[in-house]
Backbone:
């Protein structure tokens, strides 16, 4: 039984699609599309060299063009900030006098111990302060 070359290319395309699904590496998908291009070239009756060239050109073109675009879109997504990083930069309400020795603020609906960033600065109850850092369980404000 003699199998046509285009079928071998399609088997290769499926074979490259399996690691794509298992590893979620899009490069395998691009190589799989290159194998489909080789199958189309074989189905049109071209020889082995044009088939390999079609595979290489399509695969390299997809990796060179699509991959940077996908990476750019992946990097443009806003980063989800959680935990204490989400509290930095927020405003808080002073509940008890805050100075370099300590005090209390209401931050994000919770009462926190706080101290000032500048040792010579102090804030009175009712004032708004900005949280610049979280040091353990103490908010550093200014």
Residues:
């Amino acid at each position: 039984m003699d199998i046509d070359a285009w079928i071998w290319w399609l088997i290769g395309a499926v074979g490259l699609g399996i690691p794509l699904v298992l590893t979620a590496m899009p490069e395998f998908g691009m190589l799989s599309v290159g194998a489909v291009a080789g199958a189309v070239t074989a189905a049109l009756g071209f020889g082995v060299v044009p088939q390999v060239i079609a595979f290489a050109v399509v695969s390299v073109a997809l990796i060179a063009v699509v991959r940077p675009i996908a990476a750019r879109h992946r990097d443009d997504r806003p980063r989800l900030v959680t935990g204490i990083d989400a509290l930095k930069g927020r405003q808080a309400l002073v509940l008890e006098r805050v100075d370099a020795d300590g005090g209390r603020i209401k931050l994000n609906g919770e009462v926190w111990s706080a101290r000032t960033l500048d040792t010579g600065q102090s804030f009175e109850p009712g004032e708004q302060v900005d949280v610049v850092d979280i040091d353990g369980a103490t908010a550093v404000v200014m």
In short: The first strand starts at residue 91 and ends at 99. The chain is about 45% helix and 25% strand.
